[in-house]
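Note to self: user wants both folds in one dump. Writing first protein now.
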Amino acid sequence: TEVFWDKNQRRLIVCVVQEYDVETAHGVLHVTMRGVAKGNQPTILTYHDIGLNHKSCFNTLFNFEDMQEVTQHFSVLHIDAPGQQDNAPTFPTGYEYPAMEELADMLPHVLSKVKSVIGIGVGAGAYVLAKLALNKARLVEGLILINIDPCAKGWVDWAASKLSSWTSSLVDNIMGHHFSSEELLENKEIVQTLRLQICQDIPQENLALFFSSYENRIDLEIDRPTPGLTGSGLVTLRCPTLLVVGDMSPSVDAVMADCGGLPQVVQPGKLAEAIKYFLQGMGYSELPAAGMTRLIRSRSRSATNASSIQQCRPCGSGSAPPPLPVVRVLPEESSSCWRLDRCGSVVQQLLW
């Protein structure tokens, strides 16, 4: 069980936590369920990035006080990719690790007792959850995708990756996945912390297989819908989707092209704030008003600084989903404000 203090109701909250393994056609998934699925309420589903597991990827965010105000109203289901959980046994020689598409195919077996999910994925985990939403649209009610790269590696990237694998260690390659060259030099404390976690917490053989699976991913081939136009052959995410990218993340170009490396660790407050607003935009207004005071203040700043804020693009009159909103998480000293766009989605507008 987990115990935390509810500052709004001034009482201790006890939450039941269950850990278990689920056998699927593509292998075993380690699952951690926090709370109990609540009637027609969706479950928050998380999927971590390479070199991490659900604890090292999401504990900072979910232990943050503002985020606990969210999890009071939703059960949370954490997924560990095969062989990446704490104390995972090393895979035997010759084990064939699931491809990224197969990792997505494993999830419906875990979600058989869940009405629907709101996914929060980082990096490789964001790719898996996006693939799940494409395959099982009715199961996914919303997505929060952090540092996602929906594209396969091109020939140049593939050649560079091969060369890097010959000249650099597995850990160095994974660090390059998480951090830009600039951040590797500037944020030495968090870089060193992550490096130690990668070396000590996950069997290196298992980690190498997960990394190789991600490196060999195929394009998600998502089409951006044109406002006012629809088509049965359109391949797109049909749920509200929030894209999040760290300002110094190596994924910034991939995220921003169509619409810090670890924003969920470095800036849990800003990300929790974005998630609250996003859920409100989806219609979950039962979040406690007292816990939304920072958002209200941000909205006030948004109104007083309207002349400095970029305008949201209209949604169009068709039934196709609106363009995906993007949150760009900046360093703490940067100024930012929030506003609700006409789609009811969350957009972070930047004030420079």
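First done. Writing the second protein, which came from a different request thread.
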Amino acid sequence: MPFQRFVETGRIAYACDGPHQGKLVAIVDIIDQNRVLVDGPASNVSRCAMRLNDLHLTKFRIRFPFTGSTRVVRKAWEAAKINDLWKETIWAKKVEAKKKRLQLSDFDRFKLRRAKRIRNKLRTDVFYRLKKKAKKTKAAGANKKVEKK
């Protein structure tokens, strides 16, 4: 099947827009084709309706009875350890990195630019040294073949 993430009860979603931007919520019920009822007990999002355009579905899903209360959702959330699983994902790490970049001052950006320049110079030097060494060994190998004939 080409799709793995479906809009379904218990699906964990990342709110990408609106007042709850950047928080994880669980889909509790499907209202219609464009809206769902969500609840975020761990991220302090009270039960409300959200547009599907404002959500990004994650790979996580929790199991609870149809239209379970906030207490039931919280228990399922904690049992599945969603917060720990989310922190380990590459997606969450990218979000954190983006937040850190936005909080950099001018001087921090300057220091970062200098550090990247130094790192790139070291990387380039090592690359050319290895390239030169490989070229020498290749030339030496070709000379041995010529001498054997």
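Dump finished. Worth passing along: The mean pLDDT is 92.
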